[in-house]
Write a structure and sequence with these properties.
This protein has 285 residues and is α+β, with helices and mostly antiparallel strands. It is built from six helices and twelve strands. The protein binds FE2/S2 (inorganic) cluster. FE2/S2 (inorganic) cluster binds next to loops. The site of FE2/S2 (inorganic) cluster has 12 residues, from loops.
């Protein structure tokens, strides 16, 4: 069984191979942290499944399964004592938990790593309803619906071009769920696995690289803004087929494009994913 080798088959990003000892050291530490915190079991499940089935096959087909199959669970393995949801490891994610946690933050946000259908996800709550009509300079996060661009900088379209067709793509109850595999080299960024200026409790509008509350990929330091929602474009690595998707914006680092959303619905208080956009999640396939 070669789950471990699959799990950490991380190719060095040439652009990050700088000679400063600080950069080198931080990369090493980050990868150790990844080993410690990086969803070992989830990645093992994912890697093992990929070998036989291909990634898309481990997702439920549209409309398939029971409502319980669509539920998201918290994933805090190795971080049970640090993450705010550590005591809820492997329990269903609920909206109420996020509302309560966001109320403790400066920015009105809360995020957590989870597992949905065997794949890693990050769910982020943004108190959009509370702050959307307040001045954007006050540091209170709200969703921003934006134009999106492909990796060449060509405009693809606006987030609302997609959400107008299927309103379920729009954030549901102030929540978004993000597919948790980096568009750079397919690491699993998790949520706030390290503390730095990109992950602190601050927020700057515009979808740029300033401020905190970013989804930070510890492998090569890519940053994504979970509040900046856009249309984007990517491709299936095996077939080469390209597809547009609704996602969160890449704010910085070597990742070429943003991460796709998984539209959600609430089953009572429990967060569930909608399986209608499987193609969006095949770029690591
Ligand atoms: S895999 Fe390289 S930055 Fe995420």
């Amino acid at each position: 069984m070669n789950i471990m080798s699959r799990e950490y088959e991380l190719k060095a990003d040439p652009s990050t191979l700088v000679s400063s000892s600080q950069s080198s050291s931080s990369t090493t530490i980050n990868r150790r942290q990844f080993l410690k915190y990086g969803f070992n079991t989830a990645t093992g499940v994912l890697g093992a499944s990929l070998g036989v089935l291909g990634f898309a096959s481990i997702l439920l087909p549209p409309g398939g399964g029971t409502s319980g199959d669509l539920g998201v669970i918290y994933w805090a393995k190795g971080r049970e004592d640090e993450a705010w949801y550590g005591a809820k490891h492997e329990q269903p994610m609920t909206r109420t938990d996020f509302v309560n946690e966001a109320a403790k933050s400066n920015t009105g946000t809360a995020g957590a790593a989870g597992i949905w259908n065997g794949v890693p996800v990050v769910v982020t709550y943004v108190d959009h309803t509370e702050y959307k009509d307040t001045p954007v300079f006050n540091g209170k996060a709200r969703f921003q619906f934006m134009e999106g661009y492909d990796e060449t900088g060509k405009r693809i379209g606006h987030f609302e071009d997609l959400s107008d067709v299927d309103p379920r793509i729009f954030p549901s109850d102030n929540l978004v769920m993000i597919f948790g595999r980096c568009t750079h080299l397919c690491c699993i960024p998790g949520w706030q696995l390290v503390s730095n200026s990109y992950t602190d409790d601050s927020w700057t509008p515009g979808g740029g690289d300033e401020g905190g509350t970013k989804l930070f990929c510890i492998c090569h330091s890519s940053r994504f803004d979970p509040t900046a929602l856009e249309m984007n474009s990517n491709r299936n690595r095996s077939s080469g087929a390209t597809f547009n998707y609704a996602g969160v914006r890449r704010a910085g680092g070597p990742a070429p494009v943003g991460l796709p959303l998984i539209p959600i619905q609430l089953n009572g208080d429990v967060i569930e994913g909608i399986t209608d956009y499987i193609d969006w999640y095949t770029y690591c396939d």
